[in-house]
Amino acid sequence: MTSSNSGRDNSNRPTGQDGGSTHRPRWIWRGRAGQLRTLLALTAAIGAPTFAAAHDFWIQPAAFWLSQGGTTTMTILVGHGPYREKSLIPADRITRFESFGPDGRSDRRGELRLGAANIDTQLPFARRGEYVLALETNQTQSELPGIRFTDYIKAEGLTQAIELRARNKTTEAPGREVYSRRAKAIVQVGSAERQGQPVATQRLGLSLEIVPEADPYAPGAGEDLPVRIYYEGRPLAGALVKLNNLDFDARPMASRLTDQAGRAFFKVPRIGNWQFNVVWTKPIVGDPRADFETTFSSLTLGFPRTPPPRPNS
């Protein structure tokens, strides 16, 4: 997506208020012929318009599993595949950055160091147990030419916007929206253990939230991982949820539509780093900036290179 002042543009690269850096990715400096071949190959491989890469936005700890008392660096990333970059979102757009875990709820905005070259913070975790990091941003405005906005809302399964623009005969009009971001990450400190109500499965009150219905880090957990999507406090039916392997993320590994209860069912291998993402929008009236209010949400988790043991193994 392109934005008049936001983080999505027609070069398939996030730039601006929550996008990546304004320099070109390294692969661009191959000359025009090589650049064209790479771009065509990527477009064919992912089977979607190239602007879609800028939509992903997530929390990336350097390690999802730490020893007790350990520390990990963390980066806010945007894009995917060859367009993955460190986000340049300014501090005044982040309205919430918290951790939830054995020591309760902690406001960690003061630990962010946005603007550094490679990382956004270094986070210590004193107590053993499972933690969830949660981040929210405020809104910024975006506008796309009509054809590109239509491609984008179709790619993200935003049926309300598709149907409204068709009904109003505005499919060729520029698409104007205000959008914001939500992101969570699950971190395990020390060995995992069964919990009465693991923090990973709890709702944290994000306006668009991906909530696992099983603890992915529980001892003996298998690959089945149902997730439930909540929008403005209620289960969201008909949302397109995507699962990305963050080690090979040129295209989603799986995509599912949520059922009437807001659930989608995935298999997540217990090795490597994984990201769920979902987008939802609603029409707005009376806002001179936009016709839709859109929210992007993600959940990241990861496993050691040696898979956690299963029972009787």
What structural keywords apply?
single chain, 313 residues, mainly beta, 10-stranded mixed sheet, 3 helices, 37% strand
Describe the structure.
This protein is mainly beta and about 325 residues long. It has one domain (about 25-305). It has three helices and 18 strands. The longest helix is centred in the first third of the chain and has 15 residues, at about 30-45. It is globular. It starts with about 30 loop residues before the first helix and ends in a 10-residue tail after the last strand. Pfam families: DUF4198. It comes from Phenylobacterium montanum. This is DUF4198 domain-containing protein. InterPro entries: DUF4198.
Helix content: 10-25%
Mean pLDDT: 84
User: What order do the helices and strands follow?
Assistant: HEEEEEEEEEHHEEEEEEEEE
Decide which structural class fits the backbone. mainly beta
Which stretches are low in confidence, meaning pLDDT under 50 for 5 or more residues running?
Answer: 1-16, 21-53
Strand content: 35-45%
Distance between the first and last residues' Cα: 47 Å
Number of helices: 3
Number of domains: 1
What's the β-strand tally? 18
Rg calc: 19 Å
Biggest sheet statistics: 10 strands, mixed
The shape is globular
Protein name: DUF4198 domain-containing protein
Pfam families: DUF4198 (PF10670)
InterPro entries: DUF4198
